[in-house]
Amino acid sequence: MRNWLVRDLAGIAVISAVLVGISYFLGWIPIPGMAYYNRVIVTIGINIILAVSLNIINGHAGQFSMGHAGFMAVGAYTSAYLTYFHFQPFLATLAEGPGRFALQQALFLGALLAGGAAAGIAGWVVGLPSLRLRGDYLAIVTLGFGEIIRVLILNIDKIGGARGLSGVPAFANFFWVYFFVCIVIIVSWRLVRSQVGRAFLAVREDEIAAEAMGVNTTHYKVQAFVIGSFFAGIAGGLLGHYLVYLNPGMFQFTKSFEAIVMVVLGGMGSISGSVLAAVILTVALEGLRFVKEAFGLTSDPRMVIYAIVLILLMRLRPQGLLGNRELGDFFRRRKGGDR
């Protein structure tokens, strides 16, 4: 077994233990409104997963996908279908105890992975025929795919249709969300530094030159789509099992646009930039929620203020907050300059 894999597995084990401790700590903090703050923290984590997964497609591989909400919907409804119709009735037949809790967590993990796999397959289906396209044509195809998925869900009564699916088991929590935050960051970090990641970067920089050097550009673009779609499905599953409700309206084009904004604002190709932008935008949207109440406005001004801030940021720093660099690069450069 390679040394890096051993280190990563050990790191994941340590992180898991820390997350368990933090989860218990958050549950015992006697702060008024802690449930709201916990909801914001979990939402930040889900948005981080969504942004980093889209960054694999848009940032590392250089493809412009506008249908990420569709992959998220596939993962959300697949995992919710399994837990709501199959796993929850089975767990109800078991007596309460540590064994039942452990089985519940294992089944939930299986449902999340199944949802991610379904989203990955959907990414392969849409990617294989469409990724021979480039630029605006690819964006239009992926946008159309996201809308097709939403309309299909609207017409499937088994999973609620236009009414939505209520009563989804509340299995997701702080631990599971940030466990997958760590997983997607580690996978993205290792991926971009692997042979596959170098092929992604070659395709992003100059697809024609990459083909001339023998890189199978279609293969690697599809691979980026599958990986990014898998983690988008995971994010969807976590969202559904945290809100305990799913509705097709949650996965409209605006959701894909939010993820795109996070990737562009953080810096195309920057993992830590996507994380930073997801935190900033999620907190900003929640903070702007109080502007309406403070000024007694009848309409919600959040989107207007949100758009103005984004326009200013893109005007003043079009390459994003971190460009294509990581936070560690700034610290290393400063340390080298001090010498």
Report on the structure:
By secondary structure, the chain is mostly helical. Helices cover 77% and strands 1% of the residues. It has helices at residues 3-28, 34-60, 68-92, 98-130, 135-154, 174-192, 195-205, 207-212, 217-243, 253-266, 271-295, 302-316, 327-338; strands at residues 165-166, 245-246. A two-stranded antiparallel sheet has the order 1-2. The longest helix has 33 residues, at 98-130. It is globular and about 60 Å long. 39% of the residues are buried.
Main attributes?
mainly alpha
Topology:
Elements: H1 3-28, H2 34-60, H3 68-92, H4 98-130, H5 135-154, E1 165-166, H6 174-192, H7 195-205, H8 207-212, H9 217-243, E2 245-246, H10 253-266, H11 271-295, H12 302-316, H13 327-338
Antiparallel strand pairs: 1-2
Helix pairs in contact: 1-6, 2-6, 2-9, 2-10, 2-11, 3-4, 3-5, 3-9, 4-9, 6-9, 7-9, 10-11, 11-12
